[in-house]
Amino acid sequence: MGKKLTSREEDYSKWYNELVVKADLAENSGVRGCMVIKPYGFAIWEKMQAGLDKMFKETGHENAYFPLFIPKSYLSKEASHVEGFAKECAVVTHYRLKNAEDGSGIVVDEDAKLEEELIVRPTSETIIWDTYRKWIQSYRDLPLLINQWANVVRWEMRTRLFLRTAEFLWQEGHTAHATEKEAVEEADMIMHLYADFAENHMAVPVIKGTKTESERFAGAVETYCIEALMQDGKALQAGTSHFLGQNFAKAFDVKFANKEGKQDYVWATSWGVSTRLMGALIMTHSDDNGLVLPPKLAPIQVVIVPIYKGEEQLNAITEKVNPLVKELRSKGISVKFDNRDTHKPGFKFNEYELKGVPVRLAIGQRDLENDTFEVARRDTLEKETVAAEAIIEKITSLLEDIQTNIYSKAKTHQQSHITNVETYEEFKKVLEEKGGFVAAHWDGTIETEDKIKTETKASIRCIPIDVIEEEGKCMVTGKPSSFRVLFAKAY
Amino acid sequence: MGKKLTSREEDYSKWYNELVVKADLAENSGVRGCMVIKPYGFAIWEKMQAGLDKMFKETGHENAYFPLFIPKSYLSKEASHVEGFAKECAVVTHYRLKNAEDGSGIVVDEDAKLEEELIVRPTSETIIWDTYRKWIQSYRDLPLLINQWANVVRWEMRTRLFLRTAEFLWQEGHTAHATEKEAVEEADMIMHLYADFAENHMAVPVIKGTKTESERFAGAVETYCIEALMQDGKALQAGTSHFLGQNFAKAFDVKFANKEGKQDYVWATSWGVSTRLMGALIMTHSDDNGLVLPPKLAPIQVVIVPIYKGEEQLNAITEKVNPLVKELRSKGISVKFDNRDTHKPGFKFNEYELKGVPVRLAIGQRDLENDTFEVARRDTLEKETVAAEAIIEKITSLLEDIQTNIYSKAKTHQQSHITNVETYEEFKKVLEEKGGFVAAHWDGTIETEDKIKTETKASIRCIPIDVIEEEGKCMVTGKPSSFRVLFAKAY
């Protein structure tokens, strides 16, 4: 296992980076900015995918797959969209390599230059709306509710595992509607779906809201978002859902005949969450001993470690453990019996603590004699001895408890880190000393927003959907404001 | 729906292309050679993925994710590998676009040229073995059994939906082992797993075998394959599993300490199936009316079409259908009640025939009176009237029947299209007049294999694993041969 993790207190950022690698979640690859998602990390992502995919399908969405490449000219069709993505994209210019004539190795074959460059998709609105033009003729073809699971590339200069990588995995929903109202409702519904997933599967409390103009997606009329709060007081945007108006329909000429037979442009939404959620999950719950995983997403929910000397004791333990494993599995609980003889129990305890396995059972000679198990829960690190006859019930209730408990803990942290301030001085002080979300009045201008961001590195995370009307004055300019917005430093 | 499909008799190739588009499986995109997989087609692919993924996990494999991009220098490290893939790859050379100085639009920013070009993965051996070097130190780290679901790109000049596209979806397994024996066993086991999937899920009979040297994967020591036979008598390679020896371990310097503490190179396999399987599925079972799908992979297994005049009749039908739908779903059968009032029953019948829904129920006034349903099976197009009380049992047994029947039909076709020939004249005649697999003696040389391919377009599909020793003479050169190999024209 190597030496202990750096503590959060000591260096939060270093703690995160070490944890991701040591817990076998992901690592950097030989390709700048691109990560390798290791099997244990990918197993968590697969559980997230399965949960989200089920929710998408239950709300009427279907999966499809669109090309990886986007012709350069497509990207340019929606003005603010190209502005947002052109500066950080991978460009394919050739389709062949060849042996260098001077024998120096393999080089790009200049005879195989593409007529038009292809961009590796940073997001798929353009290629999808180019396709939707062929699929939509009449109101009968609407709504079109489609999602795709895909890899995308944005050429970020400073990358961090899961949080910001050049290539990442995500899902992107792209829907088409006959009316503005329907499209707005879809974008809003998805924000709530994302919040539901974050809170009830990931145990990550989030604030739902809308973005200010300058924080909106490139090409959106309105961006809905969910914002989570990490243990270091920084916010993390965990998912966004965009009402795109008719921008892409106009850019790609997607019209439909409405019920009255009149031609109109289609209304659109797009929405996505990515492997960035892994970063949110890790930073919300984990501690100085390693990962803490919500039972609903843990690849291994229960691990059983035998403590034994010699084959005979191991056999006796195995005989007792096997029916338990079988019963737990029949209840849909994923369980691992780690009977490796190459590692000692103490090593195994550390390993599963580091990997965030929610419940750990240990069984040794004394437990055999007393017909008991030692049960440890990962979130609080508490241990107790439980009679064998009560063990199934104990495990079942513990898994529920842990799911609830880590959510409550994160919720308490979030609630105690939303601070109302009245002055800019106070604002800066809270940001500096406490962090978290700071609720303040703002005059609604991009200029003031920019000034605050430049001076404090805090951005407006969102205008919460449950914002309360309240007369006030912008903390910077003193101009009138009728509600508070949430600022924070963010990942 | 448009007009009828071109028949197979008339133009098999056109029939296939039309069917793929009309049955809403896939279509060409605005990007050369890249397809859009439409929701109905993707739903079939998702079922394939789920089936295979379960089989991989049951045999001890885990999923992970490796980068999309491969540095040019990685590709060059294994000599035959680069030879195989350099001629058809997408090359990323820049990481930014900019506004042209002359205002002519968006152009590649020459200041953002990559120091080393990146290749969009055509397959991931190189990037994965570069990673495995860090993961493998000792025999305790082995075997490493990893799979990834991913998109890959091979710049094919002539493309066809599903069968050959520039971008396609696949899974690629990459395993590392301590001994040659173990690696060979893994490659062989996967070939059997693929055959099991093809036959028992897709209802596509296959021949298992090994490839000749010239047909092997670029970098493999041995390639195991499964070969299917399409209705037009052409073969289709449906999956391959490669024993890679120590080639990639040597190229990427991946050594491990064995039990005796000595350093040795790791033994490798890789294996994959792709969206090409969709092509095999379509061409094996479908007919001039459209798709025929095996119940195990059909997104909709049962469709119910009401035949009614007026709201009252529809209500009576709905009342009878609802509990049936519920009961079928509780049995895990996917069912659609198509009560759209925008289309007539005849239109719906054609649509579900085109889309290959295995079982169709119709219910009208007379059925209401007699307490019956009309049941039609897609494979044989037979119809019968079934009493409501027997309908669940009927549907359940029909779904099993159809799965079995389409397999048997395909198996009969395959068996009747394996022809033994003794002379080259006979060989050409069979190829021309009958098609299918032709079993012939061959002298084992690449020269003869090439000559046959050039002259007849038939390649050696495989040396079947159950090949029988038999003294004979090469049909071309007359040199001695001790078993027959299978030739065919192939997709």
UniProtKB/TrEMBL annotation, chains A, B:
SUPFAM superfamilies cross-referenced by the UniProt entry: C-terminal domain of ProRS, Class II aaRS ABD-related, Class II aaRS and biotin synthetases
Subcellular location, record wording: Cytoplasm
InterPro entries hit by this protein: aa-tRNA-synt_IIb (IPR002314), aa-tRNA-synth_II (IPR006195), aa-tRNA-synth_II/BPL/LPL (IPR045864), Anticodon-bd (IPR004154), Anticodon-bd_dom_sf (IPR036621), Pro-tRNA-ligase_IIa_arc-type (IPR004499), Pro-tRNA_ligase_II_C (IPR016061), Pro-tRNA_synth_II (IPR017449)
Organism domain of life: Bacteria
PROSITE patterns cross-referenced by the UniProt entry: AA_TRNA_LIGASE_II (PS50862)
CDD domains hit by this protein: ProRS_anticodon_zinc, ProRS_core_arch_euk
Catalytic activity: tRNA(Pro) + L-proline + ATP = L-prolyl-tRNA(Pro) + AMP + diphosphate
EC id: 6.1.1.15
GO molecular function, one term: proline-tRNA ligase activity
Signal peptide, first to last residue: none
NCBIfam families registered for this protein in UniProt: proS_fam_I
Assembly: Homodimer.
Function per UniProt: Catalyzes the attachment of proline to tRNA(Pro) in a two-step reaction: proline is first activated by ATP to form Pro-AMP and then transferred to the acceptor end of tRNA(Pro).
Protein name: Proline--tRNA ligase
Species whose genome carries this gene: Croceitalea rosinachiae
